[in-house]
Amino acid sequence: MISSTLAAASYPHVTIINKLSRGVIKQLRQRPGKDIWLFGGGELFRHLLTLAMVDTIELAIAPVLLGGGIPFLPPPAPSCQLTLTEQRRYEQSGIVWLSCQITPRSAYEV
CATH number of the domain at 8-102, please? Predict the structure, then answer.
């Protein structure tokens, strides 16, 4: 778990990472298991993009217009090129799901 506010002592069976760096992410990627997956968390997503540690992004677009809310990628956000790799349309809900590969870069500029 990544948190700047939770204390590891309060959650003895959970690994809490208080400061995220490229080295920490590389260590996590070397562990056996599946991909690292982030659901939500625009600030964390922006930080991972800035570290150039995001390979794929999956977007679900719901057919609802909002007049406000939490931004998907809060400013200041790095610019990056996306390549669509897969798409699905869910008839019943109207949701469109997109999977995009992020063009590799050594570091993104903010």
Answer: 3.40.430.10
